[in-house]
Amino acid sequence: MDAVPGTPVVGEVAEVARAAQFADGPGEAPGGLLEAVHQELLARRLDEQIAARFPVGQRLRILDVGMGRGVQTLRLARAGHEVTGLESDPTLVGAAQEALATEPEGIRERVRLVEGDCRDTGVHFLPGAFDVVLCHRVLMESQEQDPDATLAGMARMLAPRGLLSLLVRNADALALGPGLAGDWDGALAALDADPGTDRRGASVRADRLEALTATLAGIAAPLHAWYGVRVFTGWGADAPVPDEGTLERLLAAEDRAGRTDPYRRVAALLHLCGARDS
């Protein structure tokens, strides 16, 4: 099998399992497979987009909106970037602070943690202050039915040629979870309406690729690339992270499927990258 772009060198997969102990999502246990998969896939695609857009070695100014416990915040700081994490949940801010405290001084100096709401980026930061803005899972947890204003606020934070990275729940795949579990009433309900329900039966918010594509165009950060996340692992209960060899093969399959039609269109999550042209 040909190498998939962004595939890590042997040995780096262990970092996925280590990072998963800082599980960001409800229903995803620390150290669980679902968190490990989506964090690793985000890391691969982000690194790929950054490498294609910015000069090698450039220290980027990155804003991680809704950073959770700071998995990507810390990873990007370790890579040499200056990262600001914005999070409204004080418990998660505290968890990120604890994780940051274990890092070397040089990494700690590159990270700033701010407690605040994702809708208030303009309150905390100046327009054009960041090269990259991450908005991962924020819309999934939001009760807002129209995210345009929130996303427009984040886009205003981008410097020229800046990159906006979104991770959202895929509204076009909501019926797959209950359908594969044999819950036909749940599958029919998910086919009929938004929002749908997750694997625990809770109401969830989801977004469609076409709608977000139009939104990104309207906020001057048009869609540059998009990927499916958790094509195969998005539909069952969480599980422990498997041995390294199995995890490498699983990630290779997920990575390739997430870049390939029609598979990426039925992934549980979508990763969209919008980019300013100037």
Q: Features of this protein?
A:
alpha/beta; 12 helices; single chain; 7 strands; globular; 278 residues
Q: Tell the overall outline.
A: globular
Helix-strand string? HHEHEHHEHEHHEHHHEHE
Largest sheet: 7 strands, mixed
Structural class designation: alpha/beta
**Helical stretch count?**
12
- Look at the structure and give the mean pLDDT: 86
Strand order of the largest sheet: 3-2-1-4-5-7-6
Residue share in helix: 25-40%
Number of E-state strands: 7
What amount of the residues lies in strands? Answer: 15-25%
Which blocks of ≥5 consecutive residues have pLDDT under 50? 1-14, 20-27
What radius of gyration results from the CA coordinates?
18 Å
**How far apart are the termini?**
38 Å
Domain Methyltransferase: 62-162
InterPro entries: Methyltransf_25, SAM-dependent_MTases_sf
Pfam family, one: Methyltransf_25
Keywords: Methyltransferase, S-adenosyl-L-methionine, Transferase
